[in-house]
Write a structure and sequence with these properties.
By secondary structure, this protein is an alpha/beta fold. It has helices at residues 35-49, 74-90, 103-116, 128-140, 165-182, 200-219, 235-248, 260-272, 288-296, 307-322, 357-362, 368-371, 376-382, and strands at 62-66, 94-98, 120-123, 144-148, 159-163, 189-194, 223-229, 254-257, 302-304, 331-334, 341-347, 350-352. It is globular and about 60 Å long. One of its GO terms (cellular component) is outer membrane-bounded periplasmic space.
């Protein structure tokens, strides 16, 4: 590809972080342990919160740190699998670990990878502060860093691979507008259940859906309902937050939920009030649960991001860097904090409604057998999932 298009995206600075860290893992108990015990605890927790990946070891050339396994099914079911496959196919030894939402573990894993001599570190940060500390340490040791999926604000990673995240939000905004219009709801009240304020992607998703919906609020076509972020994308907290929203504003007609996990939390609350199906909800990630909610008519749409493409683009970059080549990118984004351009690969998301759930299966992202279980078998058949 000879075309080196420069697509500059401006990232807004995320709002000040709310809520405390949920780091309660063994690493947090360091203070009460002696030095020797600390090393044992660190090693033990690395095994526990890291992975069982047989490739993890001192000679990995690339280190990958995924954020958690609870805020979205994607990290463990899709990202890990596709990254591992791509590294295996290239014969590159990679150490893929998961910080399980623990910022201290994230830093410890990074330290261990840097010490073990990786040439490239690929990270999905838990927040920009810890991400930045890791990037600076890596760079000081000559390790090249790729921000995977989430840009670390002010971090200075050499590369960034993700989707067009403003577009993801735009698809969510268009989706809720379409579903509300289809239901012929006049002046619908729309609530926002946003992603983590510490995740730059959540800021971008919101700017995407706000771009579509704000003009409708301003014109009086739609009415703006409650608007709240979910700390750390915590699905359980999302349920509590949405329950409170619905108590305070019982006439909510639609919910823009930033991903399938948050959407499912809202749907569970709506189910208790027998409102599911009447109140459209959005999502993202095309998880099995999200797709089932779409098939059931409880979720208006999900946004499919072909994680295989993202993993392939990132591994291609990492493998090239290990081999001493210059990384191949197709654009750049401007880090709003440092104002520097970060060479990037940005991929296209796709909206998934009931009618095209079958496309996600055809793409091999989920299988018919995991999606079309129990009551969903008929819904799959009715919607051409084969
Ligand atoms: C990712 C989403 C994911 C969310 C929660 C975001 O940064 O882009 O795909 O659902 O984090 O893990």
């Amino acid at each position: 590809m000879g075309c080196r298009m420069l697509c500059r995206t401006t990232f807004a600075r995320p709002p000040v972080r709310r809520g405390g860290s949920s780091t309660k893992g063994p690493l947090m108990r360091k203070g009460v342990l002696g030095v020797a015990a600390v090393s044992v605890a660190v090693l033990a927790s690395l095994t526990a919160c890291g992975n069982d990946n047989k490739d993890s070891g001192s000679k990995a050339q690339v280190g990958v740190i995924l954020p958690d396994s609870k805020t979205s099914a994607r990290w463990e079911t899709a990202d890990r699998k596709y990254l591992q496959q791509a590294f295996d196919a290239a014969g590159i030894k990679a150490d893929i670990q998961n910080a399980q939402g623990d910022k201290q573990a994230f830093q410890t894993i990074a330290d261990q990878m840097i010490t073990s001599g990786v040439k490239v570190l690929m990270i999905t940060n838990l927040d920009s502060g810890t991400g930045k500390a890791v990037i600076q340490k890596a760079k000081s040791q000559g390790v090249t860093v790729i921000d995977y999926d989430r840009l670390t604000l002010g971090g200075g990673a050499q590369y960034y691979v993700s989707f067009d995240n403003v577009k993801v939000g735009k698809l969510q905004g268009e989706g809720i507008a379409k579903c509300l219009t289809d239901k012929k709801i006049v002046k619908p009240v729309v609530a926002y259940l946003n992603g983590a304020p510490t995740d730059n992607n959540a800021t971008l998703f919101k700017s995407g859906y706000d771009g579509v919906l704000k003009p409708k609020f301003d014109s009086g076509e739609f009415v703006k309902g409650p608007d709240q972020a979910v700390p750390e994308w915590d699905n359980a907290q999302a349920g509590t937050i949405f329950e409170q929203m619905l108590t305070g504003t019982p006439n909510i007609n639609g919910v823009v939920a930033a991903n399938d996990g948050l959407g499912n939390a809202a749907i569970a609350v709506l189910k208790k009030q027998k409102l599911n199906g009447q109140v459209p909800v959005t999502g993202q990630d095309a998880t099995v649960q999200g797709l089932q909610n779409v098939l059931a008519g409880d979720q208006c749409l999900t946004v499919y991001k072909a994680i295989k493409q993202e993993a392939d683009a990132a591994t291609k970059l990492a493998i090239g860097l290990v081999k001493g080549e210059k990384g191949q990118t197709n654009g750049a984004v401007t880090d709003p904090e440092s104002k520097s351009d970060v060479p990037s690969v940005l991929l296209e998301p796709k909206p998934i409604y009931k009618e095209n759930v079958k496309d996600v299966v055809a793409d091999g992202y989920v299988t018919k057998s995991e999606l079309c279980t129990g009551d969903y078998a008929k819904l799959c058949a009715d919607n051409g999932v084969s």
